[in-house]
Design brief:
By secondary structure, this protein is mainly α. α3 runs antiparallel to α6.
Length: 275
Amino acid sequence: MITVDPGTYVQLLALVQNSIIAAAVLGVVGGLIGVFVMQRDMAFAVHGISELSFAGAAAALLLGLNVVAGSIVGSLLAAGLIGVLGAKARDRNSIIGVLMPFGLGLGILFLALYPGRSGNKFGLLTGQIISVDLPQLGLLIGISIVVLVALLIVWRPLTFDSLDAEVASARGVPGRALSIVFMTLLGLTVAVSVQVIGALLVLALLVTPAAAALRVSSSPVLVPVLSMLFGLVSAVGGILLALGGSLPISPYITTISFAIYVVCRIIGSRARVAR
């Protein structure tokens, strides 16, 4: 629901331009890495990493430290544990199942001890529209560039390993090393995404766009492009709608992302029926 007049809305746009840029960057990066998340069947891992990312951010908030740095530490810790110990799907899921409640419990404890504004607490879970300042934006863009460059470097072997790990291993592809590298990149992406959409709903940027793209195409070129486009539309569109409403960012982003997925699923189903 829009609660501001057009003139005020334009003025607000100037105040949240950092958040809009951050959302655009995260939409692109999240959409791209989400393709590998789907190929490697690691949607559950995203949620597990986000819980420890939330715990790290909450700890930093309590101690008066940089929240993004705390989020990154928590994400990398979770990603490292999953990447090293969870080579097999069964092991990975059990590790994630252990980490999720532990991270969420720690985060809630740190927030309960935090004496500051309740808005800061709530924002870690659901996102904040004005939470991105210039230093945070610079850090976010820097981390996103690192993730994008690293993905391009390992794109071919990572794709091979994601689609057929046994054949890739037989061909000499270092699956364990790639797993650790990918989990590190995923951890960094989750950490910066938490600042915009919150820890609980980060799947909307790192899973749903790629899942939607895979419903309408199997092209190795078109799927990443569509996934990045869907992530961009969801993230930026969510902020633009939230700016004129009275709700947090995350409901808007998740709704747009889900609507895109539903449309793509319908299109994909009709295409298969036609064939």
